[in-house]
DNA sequence: ACCTAAACCTGGGCGC
DNA sequence: TGCGCCCAGGTTTAGG
């Protein structure tokens, strides 16, 4: 799922549901997902929720936090007497909360992880620490231009590199490049001024649209309320192989860039 | 520094 | 229906 709009949708919903709840017990059914430290969380109460790129952070009042990465198929779903129960055969970790509520971590492919850190040390955690600036937050045009100018690697690979900028994944990278009419294979340092600025604007715009539709439920993603997002109904180019370009009508092609499926209108994206 | 393929896993879709 | 193959919102690692 799990690009910036999907994780942010989960974060903001959990802020509403989870804050104030006490963690009474944690049931880890697949050890590799949550390898250690769960005892630090038991008895703690949820204080706040943060997000760094695609990483969700849940802070407790006892000085500890836990980080969740959903990778490709992870789900984080809140359940209470009022919401549908999304426990399934893919539920690998259950946080039992007070007031008959639960937080489920589901993950078909088991690539996701949960990790405990002291709250004060979350930003120094190795994965978080390496993250680059984030669109809609602290990615300025100047910084974006520096990042692009620093390499001749294909621009799409840069957009997906979390150490260069964080939060953008394959869906939003494809759609933003289409929106900006830039070919994903273009060397990053070959973009002109107006292209650089157009691309940053497109990234911000597409992420905002993703947020508006509560993310893309192309496959496994669901919100913390257990519902589907709707951005998949508005894909600009992602996944539209064989269909017509929304701008010029040419056929959308699938190519591979940096080992990832990449969708382009060869007519529009130069 | 950069590139690729493979690895971590499982399920869905498609062609035959 | 079944089987084999390819694909998948991410990231890391091994090898060149």
Automatic annotation (TrEMBL):
Origin superkingdom: Bacteria
Record's keyword terms, sorted: DNA damage, DNA repair, DNA-binding, Glycosidase, Hydrolase, Lyase, Metal-binding, Multifunctional enzyme, Zinc, Zinc-finger
Catalytic reaction annotation: 2'-deoxyribonucleotide-(2'-deoxyribose 5'-phosphate)-2'-deoxyribonucleotide-DNA = a 3'-end 2'-deoxyribonucleotide-(2,3-dehydro-2,3-deoxyribose 5'-phosphate)-DNA + a 5'-end 5'-phospho-2'-deoxyribonucleoside-DNA + H(+); Hydrolysis of DNA containing ring-opened 7-methylguanine residues, releasing 2,6-diamino-4-hydroxy-5-(N-methyl)formamidopyrimidine
FPG-type domain sequence ranges: 236-270
PROSITE patterns associated with the record: FPG_CAT, ZF_FPG_1, ZF_FPG_2
Subunit structure as annotated in this protein's UniProt entry: Monomer.
Name of protein: DNA-formamidopyrimidine glycosylase
Species for this entry: Candidatus Woesebacteria bacterium RIFCSPLOWO2_01_FULL_44_14
């Amino acid at each position: 799922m799990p690009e910036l709009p999907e994780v942010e949708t989960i974060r903001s919903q959990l802020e509403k549901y989870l804050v104030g709840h006490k963690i009474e017990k944690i049931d880890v059914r697949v050890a590799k997902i949550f390898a250690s430290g769960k005892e630090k969380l038991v008895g703690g109460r949820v204080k706040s929720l943060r997000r760094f790129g695609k990483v969700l952070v849940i802070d407790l009042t006892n000085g500890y936090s836990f980080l969740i990465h959903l990778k490709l198929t992870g789900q984080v779903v809140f359940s209470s007497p009022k919401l549908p129960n999304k426990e399934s055969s893919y539920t690998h970790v259950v946080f039992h909360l007070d007031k008959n509520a639960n937080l489920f971590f589901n993950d078909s492919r088991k690539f996701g992880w949960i990790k405990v850190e002291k709250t004060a040390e979350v930003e120094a955690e190795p994965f978080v620490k390496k993250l680059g600036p984030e669109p809609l937050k602290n990615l300025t045009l100047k910084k974006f231009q520096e990042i692009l100018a620093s390499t001749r690697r294909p621009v799409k690979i840069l957009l997906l590199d979390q150490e260069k900028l964080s939060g953008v994944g394959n869906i939003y990278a494809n759609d933003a490049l289409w929106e900006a009419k830039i070919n994903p294979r273009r060397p990053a340092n070959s973009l002109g001024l107006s292209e650089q600025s157009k691309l940053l604007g497109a990234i911000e715009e597409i992420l905002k649209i993703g947020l508006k539709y509560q993310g893309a439920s192309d496959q496994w993603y669901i919100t913390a309320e257990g519902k589907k997002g709707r951005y998949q109904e508005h894909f600009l180019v992602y996944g539209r192989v064989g269909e017509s370009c929304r701008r010029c009508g040419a056929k959308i092609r699938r190519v591979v860039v940096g080992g990832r499926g990449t969708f382009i209108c060869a007519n529009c994206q130069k």
